[in-house]
Design goal:
This protein is α+β, with helices and mostly antiparallel strands. The protein contains eight helices and 15 strands. Strands 4, 5, 6, 7, 8, 9, 10, 11, 12, 13, 14 and 15 form a twelve-stranded mixed beta sheet that branches. The chain is flat and about 85 Å long. It binds zinc ion (2 copies). The site of one zinc ion has 8 residues, from loops. One zinc ion binds next to loops.
Length: about 425
């Protein structure tokens, strides 16, 4: 047993093994520690990283007879559809200059989720978007008829599966304050807390199209993958599908991030009973990692307003809508200011009636009015359904797969702070 590498968690001096005490002693601050608790602080990172195996099946010449491939001369999108479907416009930019090509390299999808939202339904969802949203910029209210065709698009995704394992070590504190005479005494008990656990994930989707903003595809999640069918060219009839052109490694980073955040959040939620908890270190690794290429259905609408292109996307299976429409700055300020003034007015009247109109009461009223105004504005902004990233993968955790495999909470040492209480009465 070597103790050379161990440092005192309290003062960082080297620890020495005391033959008599059977503990690790610090000569500098005279704390002593169980070997067990010092070992709980170490993170083993011999196994590290979340990894996924990728499939290698590619399109071949026999697929070429049943699938027609195109490239858009305007935006560069590489597209494909079923052999007898004639493609006339690019689903991304609406350009009509799309030229036939040979089906090439691209990875062949394994699964397809069929459309269940019809064009009429998608149109209704889209039209419904423009009502009851006070912060919608006027350009969307005045010239809605210029919004062009809705396009049926299969977006290429990678679906990631894995069993993730993690060890996370935390510095934790329990604080207590007591009063002794003129002194306030704060006792801080320092603990080292460790959780090891595992969690399995199924079908975390990451979009594999250069042309689609990840915030958009992540905002129309989730898809129900139990409805997926094996890929065959016939399912593309009447739709366009995009090639997976984003480096699978880049997609993997998004999946890894979401896996790590989900497992770390789950482990953190089991650390309870402390005043303060800080993560000290973590090691998360995966087993049985696998990526499957799939096509998922999206209704895509792009519209040009004041020389800018805005994108609306509707999940072709669930009807969830997202877009990149910004909140109108002027309307946001007017709403925020209006609510603030209104609430402030009501408070002032109430205070006047109660005959309690003073500086402190007004300040509290102003803070409350500000909070109410901010909440109102954020509710109104959320109505716009703006696309944003998802940071965890909670929707894709295999049911009941979260397990804690090791749990330890070790007391390390105590520190004490004293503070003289100012006595105003004398
Ligand atoms: Zn020490
Ligand atoms: Zn295009």
């Amino acid at each position: 047993m070597s103790t050379i590498a161990y440092k005192c968690p309290c003062c960082a001096s080297p620890l020495a093994y005391g033959a008599e005490s059977g503990k690790l002693d610090c000569a500098s601050c005279s704390n002593s520690f169980d070997l067990e608790s010092i070992e709980a602080m170490q993170i083993d990172d011999t196994k590290s990283g979340v990894k996924f195996e990728r499939p290698t099946e590619r399109f071949d010449s026999s697929d070429g007879e049943q699938i027609a491939a195109y490239t858009c001369q305007s935006c560069g999108a590489e597209l494909m559809t079923e052999g007898t479907t004639t493609a006339t416009e690019c689903p991304y930019c609406g350009s009509h200059t799309i030229l036939p090509e040979r089906i090439n390299a691209g990875v062949k999808p394994e699964l397809v989720v069929p459309f269940t939202v019809t064009k009429e339904k998608a149109q209704d969802i889209f039209n419904g978007y423009f009502t009851g949203k006070p912060l919608l910029p006027n350009i969307f209210k005045d010239s809605r008829n210029r919004i062009s065709e809705m396009r049926r698009l299969f977006v290429p995704y990678w679906l990631f599966d894995c069993d993730a394992h993690g060890s996370v070590v935390y510095n934790a504190e329990k604080r207590r304050t007591e009063r002794r005479g003129d002194w306030e005494i704060e006792k801080i008990d320092h603990y080292i807390v460790r959780r090891n656990g595992s969690m399995s994930f199924e079908n975390i989707p990451v979009d594999g199209s250069e042309k689609m903003d990840n915030r958009i595809t992540e905002s129309i999640e989730p898809y129900d993958l139990t409805a997926a069918v094996p890929f065959q060219p016939a399912v593309l009839a009447g739709s366009m599908a995009d090639h997976a052109d984003v480096d699978a490694e880049k997609c993997e980073e998004r999946a890894t991030e979401r896996v790590e955040n989900s497992l770390a959040d789950a482990l953190r939620s089991t650390v309870t009973g402390y005043t303060r908890v800080n993560e000290r270190g973590r090691n998360i690794f995966s087993e049985n990692g696998k990526a499957k290429p799939a096509l998922l259905p999206v209704w895509l609408i792009t519209t040009e307003k004041a020389e800018k292109t805005y994108t609306f996307a509707i999940n072709g299976q669930t009807g969830a809508l997202t877009c990149d429409v910004p909140a109108d700055t002027k309307k946001t300020l007017l709403w925020g200011g209006g609510v603030f003034a209104g609430v402030m007015g009501v408070f002032a009247v109430i205070l006047a009636i109660m005959d309690a109109l003073g500086g402190a009461a007004l300040l509290i009223s102003a803070i409350a009015a500000l909070i109410i105004a901010l909440i109102t504005v954020s509710v109104l902004i959320s109505q716009l359904k703006q696309a944003s990233h998802q940071n965890a993968a909670g929707n894709y955790v295999r049911k009941d797969s979260f397990r804690i495999t090791a749990r330890s909470d070790h007391f390390l040492y105590r520190t004490t702070n004293r503070r003289k209480i100012e006595n105003n009465n004398k």
